[in-house]
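Contributing new complexes? Match this layout with iron/sulfur cluster.
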Amino acid sequence: MKKNTLGKTGIPVTPVGFGVLTVGRTQLDMPVKEGAAILRYALECGVNFLDTAQYYETYPYIREALRGTRFAPVIVSKSLQTSGREMREAIEEARRELDRDVIDVFLLHELRHGNDFASRRGAFEALCEAKAKGLVRAVGASTHHVDIAERMADIPEMDVLFALINYKGLGIRKGAGPGKKEEMAAAVKKAAEAGLGVFAMKVFGGGNLVGDYLTALDYVSALPGICSMMLGIGHRDEVDRMIEYAEGRIDRSYKPDISEKRIRVDQGDCEGCGACVERCPNRAMYFNDRGLADVNDTLCLRCGYCAPVCPVRAVIML
Ligand code: SF4
Ligand code: SF4
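Output block (do not edit by hand):
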């Protein structure tokens, strides 16, 4: 598979990457060996770009997938921590748990609008220190927010931007409200022109756009500045389709079978605003005893009405 250069980092990455979140605790919750087997299959097929995070608790899958192999993929991790001490610990945890001396890319996880960057300055300085010491190769941030993506080009220490974008604009934020895909696309372009390596998340809007497989991939892959798309993978078939797409040999009439998919609410992302509960026409969405949204599978018709109203992209299809 061809590779693209991740901006000024010079790191070559495949145009599609494996989002390891999907196999882990918060989504499919696969046994480690099972998830690692899919991951290893993707590596054998040529994928060299993996995304994980401290919060996902998926380091064991990567470690198991790489055990005893020749593969040395580019690994992205990230942390929600705010202080320098906590971020240093997060980097050490990644190095230890992944059994790697150097983490390729380490990010501030989910940078939000307002003064979030200022309040996490200590954590970012820890990332920069780790890079200076050779413990990480590149630093940056992941974000769902147009405001943050726009600012990235103006922060000289930033190497990488991991931005949320998809053809329906699901989950894109701007200020305290929704953002537009055109605004995020412009921010991505600006960041890439400033030399940042930019790759995309939520190309399928948390699984909600998988039914429009080719439309979703075509939109993001054609955006100026995007060098890779991180895709959540839970089955070998999905690896095959992803590779066929990246190599330009996919059947252009391909439509995934989504009949077995289920609507889920990511309990780590849900903010309990109630918009999905209100929107659901079938009373399938409800508040659980933690005050977060949840789905009653027996009532859910998988109409998908709930996903677009979620401001934080917590409604996913698995
Ligand atoms: S997919 Fe439709 S039925 Fe299911 S929870 Fe969402 S809005 Fe309700
Ligand atoms: S719309 Fe999103 S954040 Fe609000 S309750 Fe539903 S899942 Fe949670």
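Reviewers usually confirm one structural detail per submission. For this one: The mean pLDDT is 95.
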